[in-house]
Amino acid sequence: MASISLSFSSSILSTPVSQEKCKIHSTPIHRTQDSFSRVIRCAIAATPATKTSSDKKRHWKEGEYPGISETSLSGSTRKTPIKNLKKKLERKANAKAWVSTVTETLSDRIEKKQWLQALEVFDMLREQPFYEPKEGTYMKLIVLLGKCGQPHRAKQLFETMIKENCDPTPELYTALLAAYCRKNLIDEAFLILNKMKNLPLCQPDVFTYSTLIKACVDALKFDLVELLYEEMAERSITPNTVTQNIVLSGYGKAGKFDQMEKVLSSMLESTTCKPDVWTMNTIISVFGNKGQIDMMESWYEKFRNFGIDPETRTFNILIGAYGKKRMYDKMSSVMEYMRKFQFPWTTSTFNNVIEAFASAGDAKNMEYTFDQMRAERMKVDTKTICCLINGYANAGLFHKVISTVRLAGKLEIPENTSFYNAVISACAKAEDLMEMERVFIRMKNNHCQPDETTYSIMVNAYRKEGMNDKIYDLEQEKQRMISDDQKSG
């Protein structure tokens, strides 16, 4: 196993980012190709017109036009105002075309979750005098930075927005608060909430509180959840079904089933916060993830009796739960039911089946499912690739791990923390610690922050080989990362 050389590093696409600023010159727009697509290196500048002696003779009177005189009307060789106007319009048209192209590039970077490149393109746009960023652009970028685990950069962008006289809104503050919540920086999120309460035009709403409640639930800080509920009541903010579903999920994951049933009972009695299909999905997902199949099926029937109809996601949850328990017959039955009653199979449907075979190391059925997924033109996402990598690693087919990484590059699959964790885990299973370290360095160079799972995989790999010095270095690095996050937050 140790003799196998896994060239993961060469398989993962590099992500070079041009550090060159946008230069101002009078040449046409240029476009170049790199591994991500276009990197724009262009700008537009007008060459100032040279003043002539006739311009200095007098200022025109009201009603007259600059550059028009008796001599010019009688056939002067000077450029006419029409031509000047035409050039001005052309310059404006070119500027608009440039902005349109760069704006498309910005949207592309945001869609692909390439936060660093998105910020660089945005900075390029902001340097242009004719571009004024809108609230929606800031919102998309702040949400992107939050999803990519960059709350400190989201805060910097938010402060830049304020300096540029773009008025904040409750939605923008909530997006910033959510960025901190995603990194479990709850204290910082509460500071933003308190700031909102002091701003008359940016008062927190039910979505703000729901976002913060979810962070508290995920951190198992149910005492803070109760305080937030009390504060909402004082402000006459009624929890909606989304809020209650979040709390239901938290109680379920924590094994607090009595509290979970209490919340559900209050929803059934409520006239404004009735349980819906998301409530159904939340409850069956809790039991499904815990492997309590009987309870999952029982609650499914209860919700059907409440008059709540299932949706595609409901069936995907059932498929995932059956797959984890290797109950392939029931998994197949649900899929057949979906086909029969015209519930579409989705990427999640295939991912759950692929994951089931991957965890069992059943490469043959995993590949068959993936081929069917491609045949049905279903979108392949990061989870699909991670499941394939894990499946091949579990089956000991490490050469196919490499080909899967290459496939991810061809399909331009976002290389997030889960992706790198899957590759690092495969290296560890192949006992190729040198390659594991190279992928880890690659991960950090691509501004993809390691998480608890990353460090756990590597520590276990080093412990297996008795490399205590490596474990110590890794623990120190982890502590520095946590400290840096707290300072930047």
Poorly predicted ranges (pLDDT <50, ≥5 residues)? Answer: 1-5, 12-80
Cα(first) to Cα(last) distance is 43 Å
CATH topology title of the domain at 90-204: Serine Threonine Protein Phosphatase 5, Tetratricopeptide repeat
Helix content: 55-70%
Q: Biggest sheet, strands in spatial order?
A: 1-2
Second CATH tier, the architecture of the domain at 90-204: Alpha Horseshoe
What's the tally of helices? Answer: 24
Q: What does the largest sheet look like?
A: 2 strands, antiparallel
State the name of the first-level CATH class of the domain at 90-204.
Mainly Alpha
Radius of gyration equals 29 Å
Can you count the beta strands? 2
CATH superfamily of the domain at 90-204: Tetratricopeptide repeat domain
SSE sequence, one letter per element: HEEHHHHHHHHHHHHHHHHHHHHHHH
**Broad structural category:** mainly alpha
Keywords for this structure?
single chain, 489 residues, Serine Threonine Protein Phosphatase 5, Tetratricopeptide repeat, two-stranded antiparallel ribbon, 2 strands, 1% strand, globular
What would a concise description of this structure say?
By secondary structure, the chain is mainly alpha-helical. The protein is 65% helix and 1% strand.
Detailed description of the structure:
By secondary structure, the chain is mainly α. Strands 1-2 form a two-stranded antiparallel sheet. It has 24 helices and 2 strands. Helix 8 (186-197) packs antiparallel against helix 9 (206-218). The two termini are 43 Å apart. Mean pLDDT is 83; it is low at 1-5 and 12-80. Among the domains are: 90-204, Serine Threonine Protein Phosphatase 5, Tetratricopeptide repeat, CATH 1.25.40.10; 216-274, no CATH class.
